[in-house]
Amino acid sequence: MVASDPKTGTAPRGLIFNIERFCVHDGPGIRTVVFLKGCPLSCRWCANPEGMTPDPQVVYLTDKCIGCGQCAAVCPEGVVVRTDDGINMIAEDRCRHCSACVGVCPSRARLLYGKSMSVDDAFEKIYKDLPFYRRSEGGVTISGGEPLLQKAFTKRLLKRCADSNVHTAVETCGFADWETVLDTFADARLILFDFKHLHPLKHLKFTGQNNQLILKNLKRLDARGVPLIVRVPVIPGFNATTDDMRAMADFVAGLKHPHACHLLPYHGFADSKYRLFHMKQRFYLAKTPGTDKMKAFQGIWSRRGIETQIGG
């Protein structure tokens, strides 16, 4: 069992929007990825828009709705109503995302993104795949969103996994004070560090935050010899240029310890998610970088002595 937080007297809970099993792109071997809600950045190309906000979200899949009206009957705010043309949401701003409608929907037309879970609950799901971790040298990866926004839960879950000899990794944007980074990731055996751009103003324009704190934390982790992989999302119109790649590769090559790099080409797979959450996809016109361009970028990094691969 997980001990209580000495500051609050309660065991930490995490708001999780997905636990994905049998993953092979988020660290070594076969992994279980725990996705936490909430992120301090708002990257225009984000592949997980359901992880941006730190609150639960209820979504409505109209194509699955059978019009039974059970959701309208249980909605405590009266924002879900049944009309002649079907089930409709009125006054969406009054929806508290309490998920009462989710629990009664027989066709799964209403889904909740953001379930509160204890460390014990999350670990129970992780531990089921222990045989696969051992055979493939895999483990658990905590992602998001941003794990540092749920630091107490992340810290305890990493500790629980480490104590059970489950390999631990985290994916992070690195945007937090150094004490939080160091304390939260104390039991992480690998850090997948998102490195988006070297220029602070361009980083601010496209992510909502400048990168000075992020780069400082990357240097600090490197100085401590923490095992990490630099992950670069290759985004047309943002950093998918020869000059940007050279500058970023030079920065990583100048760190004290060698680190591998994963170049992650932009994709539009999240378009349907943006529509589902009534969010504007701000990179919907961008195209996935071609194979030749990605190989050219890979060459830029490799020529600086950095072990580089395309994809996670």
Question: Can you offer a commentary on this structure?
Answer:
The protein has two domains: 13-54 and 115-310, TIM Barrel (Alpha-Beta Barrel); 57-113, Alpha-Beta Plaits (2-Layer Sandwich), CATH 3.30.70.20. The two termini are 33 Å apart. A hairpin with a 2-residue loop joins strand 4 (80-83) and strand 5. The protein has a nine-stranded mixed sheet with strand order 7-1-2-8-9-10-11-12-13. A two-stranded antiparallel sheet has the order 3-6. With 312 residues, it is α/β, with parallel strands linked by helices. Helix 3 (119-127) packs across helix 5 (151-163). It is built from eleven helices and 13 strands.
Briefly summarize what is shown:
By secondary structure, the chain is of the alpha/beta class.
Tally of individual domains: 2
Average pLDDT rating: 91
**CATH class (first level) name of the largest domain:** Alpha Beta
In total, the number of strands is 13
What is the CA-based Rg, rounded? 21 Å
Sketch the major β-sheet: 9 strands, mixed
Can you list the strand order of the major beta sheet?
7-1-2-8-9-10-11-12-13
Shape: globular
The separation of the N and C termini measures: 33 Å
Write the CATH fold name of the largest domain.
TIM Barrel
**Proper CATH architecture of the largest domain:** Alpha-Beta Barrel
The fraction of residues assigned to DSSP E strands is 15-25%
Q: Total helix count?
A: 11
CATH superfamily of the largest domain: Aldolase class I
Low-pLDDT runs:
none
- Helix content class: 25-40%
Sequence of secondary-structure elements: EEEHEEHEEHHEHEHEHHEHEHHE
Class per helix and strand makeup: alpha/beta
